[in-house]
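Researcher: Go.
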Amino acid sequence: MKIKITEGIRKGARAGFLLVLVATLTLELTGLIQYYYSAKGIREEAQKRAESQLETNRTRIMDVVNQTEAAVRNSVWIAQWCLDVPDSLHRVAQRIVEDNPLVIGSTVALVPGYNKRRPLYSPYVCKGPAGLEFKSLATEEYDYPSQEWFSKPLELEQGYWSEPYIDDGGGEVLMTTYSYPIRDKKGQVAAILTADISLDWLTELVGNVKVYPSAFSMVVSRAGQIMVCPVETLIMRTSVTDAVKGMDDSVSLASLNRAMLSGESGNMTIREKGVTSRVFFAPVERTGWSMSIIIPETEIYAGIRKIGQLVMLLQLLGILMIIFIIRYVIMNYISFDKMNKQKERIQNELQVASDIQMAMVPKIFPPFPKRDDLDLSASIVPAKEVGGDLYDFFIRDEKLHFCIGDVSGKGVPASLLMAVTRTQYRTLAAHYDSPAKIVSSINDSMDEINENNMFVTFFCGVLDLKTGHMDYCNAGHNAPYILTDAIRELAVEPNLPLGVLPGINYVEQSVEMKYDDALFLFTDGLNEAENIRHEQFGESGIRAVLHTRRSAQGQMDAMKAAVAAFVGEAEPSDDLTMLFLHYLGK
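Model: Structure:
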């Protein structure tokens, strides 16, 4: 016996050793897989953050570009009108500078020889320390016809953003100019209208990178001139082509520069002085500029290295835990079996609760088969076993009392509040014909029992079946649709839902219903029903079904079929409750 026991222990030890070995290898492989996918996810996250930052910067830059271009284009007609009176051209430039905070200077530069009396004429208006300053750019020192902002739009015959430059003799700051050709009545280019913007805002905007602490940005012009970068001595003094000469990874850097100067977008990896970085770049439309964000990979993967160390520690702990797991497998199985039985019991209880809840609302249709002045149908489809929606109706003294409501929240608490609300409604409606009185009484009584701060959107009405006069009161519920010769929302006072605040004076309203008019009431489970693309059924879906006249039950069936077809395989997110009332009185 002792030998058999020893042999059993040995077999168990071997089996345990093999289990631990397999578990160790599995954990190690799992760790490697997790590391791979974590690194991949972090790369993708870094890319998304960088691309998002680039898009944000691009959007802000394009806002400035669009505003500047609009300021110029909006003044073209004035400049055309002033061509015959050159002395008034400075007012065009003055108007652009005064009306546009982004613009620091503007000129209307005549094409040389266009005006015989003024062979060269370019009145310039700019913002100075003491206010607006007026200058002339038609000087031998400045020679405006040779400036890029003048020659390029004249050559291209379209709007043009100049290369950044320091405007000696003009604005005296680092700027870029948007120029637009002005044609006279004969269609001949007669002048160039400009707007100058300072590039100080660009440095502040692009330089403030929030992607990673060590990340930084660069902006280069269409000619490759560095406009923004952390090293101030390089700005407008060095091109990106000259800057990469002599660097370690000159081949990759040259390829990156070509892509940026070609107006491409994407990302590349570069290595300089032993540091590998990821460069994300994108163009700025119409300006010829290109933006980039440079992020060191050590910073991108800093978190995953700490995670790797933590994973190794967790793997060791996991191996120790495996030794104890075997012991508790059977105990866990027993507990799992108990949980299943408990879950089954809860489901049975919920089913009973659902049956009780559904028994509280009328569900036999047509409800009044002997009456020919009313056609009515209603439906509740809970999103869970029990829900918080309710409807009710009955006839007293030749008046139809009806209501619909939606309790905030779902599950058992909502179903209990639904039951209380429906019971209070029945009790009050049996004595009062005023919807406002009924709603106010329910609201006040809820204050004493509403410890969970839940609320109920509620709509109730009283329809005189002899006259068609209907009184109603709305408590934060969706406005019903009334079907007359057209389909429209019933005018309702929004009021507060029930249970929000006691002592509210709810507003009562009324409407006259005629023969063949109908009323469609619903909870937000209908209009907010979503498909797998998170699109909502909405008002258009409701109106499409109501557009065709049907019996009350036919409308219920058609609406449920339409919602089911729209939602498809998506899980219902809310209870769906509807009530259709068709008045056929004399």
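Model: Residues 1-5 have pLDDT under 50 and may be disordered.
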